[in-house]
Amino acid sequence: MSLEAELAAIVGTANVITEAEALRPAVSDWRGRYSGRARCLVRPAATAEVARVVAACARHGAAMVPQGGNTGVCGGAIPDAGGREVIVSLARMNRIRGLDAANNTIAVEAGCILAEVNRAAEAAGRLFPMDLGSEGSCQIGGTISTNAGGTRVLRWGNMRELVLGLEVVLADGRVLDAMRGLRKDNAGYDLKQMFIGAEGTLGIVTGAVLKLVPRPAASATAFVALESCEAALGLIDHLRGALGDRLSAFELISAPQLEAVLAQIPGTRRPLATTAPWWVLLEAADSGAQQVLDDALEQGLMQALDAGLARDASVARSGREAQEFWRLRHSVSEANVKTGRVISHDTSVPVSRVPEFIARCSGLAGRFDGLRLHVVGHLGDGNVHMVAIFPPGQPGLDALAREVSREVHEIAAGLGGSIAAEHGVGQSLRDQLAICRSPVELDLMRGLKRLLDPQGLMNPGKVVPAG
Amino acid sequence: MSLEAELAAIVGTANVITEAEALRPAVSDWRGRYSGRARCLVRPAATAEVARVVAACARHGAAMVPQGGNTGVCGGAIPDAGGREVIVSLARMNRIRGLDAANNTIAVEAGCILAEVNRAAEAAGRLFPMDLGSEGSCQIGGTISTNAGGTRVLRWGNMRELVLGLEVVLADGRVLDAMRGLRKDNAGYDLKQMFIGAEGTLGIVTGAVLKLVPRPAASATAFVALESCEAALGLIDHLRGALGDRLSAFELISAPQLEAVLAQIPGTRRPLATTAPWWVLLEAADSGAQQVLDDALEQGLMQALDAGLARDASVARSGREAQEFWRLRHSVSEANVKTGRVISHDTSVPVSRVPEFIARCSGLAGRFDGLRLHVVGHLGDGNVHMVAIFPPGQPGLDALAREVSREVHEIAAGLGGSIAAEHGVGQSLRDQLAICRSPVELDLMRGLKRLLDPQGLMNPGKVVPAG
Asked: Which of A265, A271, A324, B86 would suit a FRET pair with B108, their CA atoms being 20 to 30 Å apart?
C-alpha cells in the first residue's frame, strides 16, 4: 500500500492533502523567505493518529516536517525543495484537555492557538504569561518547539519555564507521555527538556501541561526617554530594585527605530515631546489596587529622573494610551519592511554587555554603503534585535546581507552571546551555529539527534549542522 | 602506571586519599543509611584536572562517584560495596569565578558551598533564591545534580530554573563548556538540561552560571491555624491573588508533626494559643517598605479569617519571632528522629490533589500497628513529605518500611504524582522509578545514559534502573 493510502486510512482521505494549490500555504513562510515542496500534508486529530502517521512514515522512510501555525521566521516548519517530505500539521489537535485552577495548570494539545489558551486562562482568573505578537495564529506546539520568548520573559521566563508536562510522539511512533502537572519532579532524567526548543527534529510535540500564574489585577505602562543605552541599564537596575518582580516588560528602542515607526505607520504619534537617542517602553503588573501600582511606578520613575537615569518619562493615563505605546513597539517589523530590505538578527548577550554590543554593531554602518541600523529588544533578557536595513534595489543585497549577519553574529558570540535567542534556528541559522557553539556541543547535539532519530526522518536539515 | 599513580601525577599525592580511616567520612552518608567502600578519593582543584582524572579513570575502566557536600539523603554520592570505585570530590573547586551585577548572574565552581554563594550575592545587593536546610555544607554541584528544591520554589523555582550556564566534564574527559549567562539562548539543543538532576550519572558538573534576583527589602512571616488541609488550598489561592508573587513560602504542617516538634525540641513554643488540626507557615517578600508588606499580609490574612479559610493567624512582630516560627519548621527532621524509626517520603502530586493524597495515606495508619504519620510539605509545589514513624525497636521494621513506602509511592503515582520530588533518586529510589515512569520513559533514560556514558563508569547503580 502506498504511504498516502496508509495515511488516508489513519486520518481519512480529506485530511491527506496532495494538490499543489492546497499545499501552497504550508510550503512557504509568511514572510516569503523560505519555500519548498511537499509530498503531502497530513492532518491527524489525536495523539494516537500522530503516532500511527509517524510509524507509517518511518516504515516508508519518508521524512516528516511538523507544522503548527507556520508563524516562524527561520524556516523551521518549511519542507525542503525535494518534494518528498510529509508535512504533519497539528492544526486539528486543538483541544484544551483540562484546566486545574488549584494547581495553576492547563493541559492543551499542540495545535491550540496561543490566544485561545490565554482566553481559557483568563476565564479561570489566571494568566498564561507568554506574550507574542503572533498570539492569534501561533500554536502551542510551535512555541514549545522553538522555546519561544517574547516581551514578558523578564518576569515569567521563556516557554521552557512554562512547560510542566509534555507529550511527544517519538521517531519510531512510540508516545512519550509525560503529561504531569508537577512543580517538583526528579524521578530520573527530565526527558521533556530535550524536546523543548528542538523544533521537531527529535519528535513531534502533541500536548503539554502549562503553568498558569495568578492574574495581575493592575498594570501600568510608561514610555521613557534616555540619554544613552548605558542609561537603560541603570534604569532597569533601579526599577527592579524599586518594583521587584512587578516589572514585567522593559523594551529598548533606538531613536531611528522609533522615527521609522512614526514615519511609516499611519495614526501613530510621538509618545513624548522630548527628543532622545534611546527610548524604553516598560510595563509593571501586580496584584492589588491600580492606584498603588501607578504610585509605585511614578515614584520609581521620579527617582530615576532625579538620578539622571532618564531624560523624561510618560506614564500612560488610560488603557488606550497604554495600547498606543505598545502599538509603537508592535509596529516595528511593519515599519522596517516599509523602510527597505530588512536583515533582522536575534542575538542575545549578557545584559551587562548590551551597550558594548550595540556600540560595536554601530561601527558596521560606516563600512557598508547605505546601511541603516535600527535597534529594538528586550533589555532585561539581553536580547537585542539589531535590524540592518539597506535601500530597496541596492545591488548585491544577498551577499551584503550574509556579510552583515556574519559580523553581527560574531560580535555577539565574542561577547559571550548567542545568535539564536528567541526565534529558533530552523534552516536559517543551522549552518552558523558553530559561531556560538563549540565542537563538543555540536558533537553532543548530533549524538542526541542520532539517539532519538536514528533514521534522520524528523524535520531533517533543521537545527543540527551536518557533521 | 597504576591509576593511583596517574591520579597523583594530576592532583598531587596529598590529594589522592587511599587510607580507610581518611576515606571513612566519604563512604557513608550523614544519616548512616548508606555505606560502601572506595578504591580512593581524588580531589582535583580545577576543571582541567577533573578532565584528566576522568580520562585516566576511563582508560583504566574505573567507575567514578562524584561527591559534593555529601548532604544527600538518597545515597547518590556513596560508592558501592565493591571497593573499586573512585570518589571524585569537588571540594577544592570552590572559587567564585565572577559576579555580574548588571546581568544578575554569578559564575561559580561546583564545590562552592551554598551559603558562600548566598553571601556573595548579598554583598552585591542581590539574592540567590535557593533556600535549603543544608546551606552551610551542601555544594552547588550537588544542588544542580539533584535539581534541588527547598522552601522558595513557589516563587523562584527549582535549581533548574536558576541555572543559566553549565560546565561539565563528560565521561570521556572532554569538557562541555556552556558557561553562558544568557536569559534567552536557543542556538541548538539546550544540552545543559540533560546534566541538571542527573546526579553525576552522565558527567561531572564542575561549574555553573547562576541567576540572581533583586534582593527583597522587606519580608514578613506568619503562622496560621487551619480547620483542614482543604482550607490550606483555599488559603494559598486567596493569598496568591492578594499578594501575587510576594508569597515566597507556604509550608503545610500537620498537628501531630507540630506537637512532635514542641515535645522533642527544647526551647520551642506554640506559635498560637489555638489548637488546630493543620498549620501553615508562610513568608512574603517584596521590594519597598516593610510596613507596606506587613499591611498587605495582615489584610490578606484578615480576609482569609473572615472568609473562613483560616481559624487564627499570627504575623511575626520581629525578626526574632520570625526565626522562632521557622525554627519549628526546620526542627521537623530532628524531632521525628527522636520520635522513632523514620521512613520519610519525597512525593509530589498536583496541588489540587494534595488533600486526597493525604486522606489516602492517612488510611495506612489503621493498617500498620504502631504507625504514626506526620505531614510536612511545600503546598505550593504539591511536594508533601509523608513521614511514617514506627516505635523504635518494633520487630520487622525493614520489611514494614518497604511496605509502607511502596503504598505511599503508589498513592502518589495514582494521583499523577512523583516519588522523587526534590531529594533525588540516588540508590534509594532507583528500583522504584517504574512506579511513576512508563517503560518508554525508562527506555529513553537508558538510551541517554548509553549515549553519554557508554562504558557505564559515571556513578553506576544510581538513578537509572537496570534494563
From this structure: B86
CA-to-CA dists, residue A73 to A76, A422, B187, B371, angstroms: 8, 11, 14, 60
C-alpha cell belonging to residue B24: 571513612
Q: Is the dihedral of CA A236, B160, A180, A199 positive or negative?
A: positive
Amino acid identity, position A385: H
- For A133, residues 6+ apart whose C-beta sits below 8 A from its C-beta are A330, A333
How big is the A-B interface in CB pairs under 8 Å?
263
pLDDT of residue B421: 98
Question: Which residues, 6+ apart, have CB-to-CB distance to A158 below 8 Å?
Answer: A147, A148, A149, A422, B183, B184
CB contact under 8 A, A183 and B440: no
Residue B396 is classified by DSSP as T
Tell if the CB–CB gap between B463 and A189 is shorter than 8 Å: yes
Query: Which helix (H) or strand (E) segment is B122 a member of?
Result: helix B114-123
Q: What is the DSSP string of A64-112?
A: EEEESS---SSSTT---TTS-PEEEE-TT---EEEEETTTTEEEEETT-
Determine the longest span between alpha carbons in chain B, in angstroms.
Answer: 76
**Cβ atoms of residues A56 and A6 within 8 Å:** yes
Q: Which residue in A210, A193, A211 sits closest to A202, CA to CA?
A: A193
A348 touches chain B (CB under 8 A): yes
| C-alpha torsion A63→A68→A71→A75, nearest 10 | -10
Q: What was the pLDDT predicted at B214? A: 92
| pLDDT given for residue B142 in this prediction | 98
Residue A195's nearest CA partner among A214, A175, A221 is A175
Tell me the shortest Cα–Cα distance from B2 to chain A, in angstroms.
Answer: 29
What pLDDT, on a 0 to 100 scale, did the predictor assign at position B394? 87
Q: Is A125 on the interface with B (CB under 8 A)?
A: yes
**Percent of chain B scoring above 70 in pLDDT:** 100
Burial, A409: exposed, middle or buried (Cβ in 10 Å; 0-12, 13-18, 19+)? Answer: buried
pLDDT of residue B392: 87
What letter represents residue B357's amino acid?
A: F
Residue A344 C-alpha cell reads as 533582522
The whole-angstrom separation of Cα B79 and Cα A426 is 44
Render the burial of B83-98: b for 16+ CB within 10 Å, e for the rest: eebbbbbbbebbebee
Q: Which residues of B touch A244 (CB under 8 A)?
A: 214, 216, 245, 286-288
Nearest neighbour of A191 by CB, restricted to B245, B351, B444: B444
Instruction: Please indicate whether, in this complex, the C-beta atoms of B425 and A186 are within 8 angstroms of each other.
Output: yes
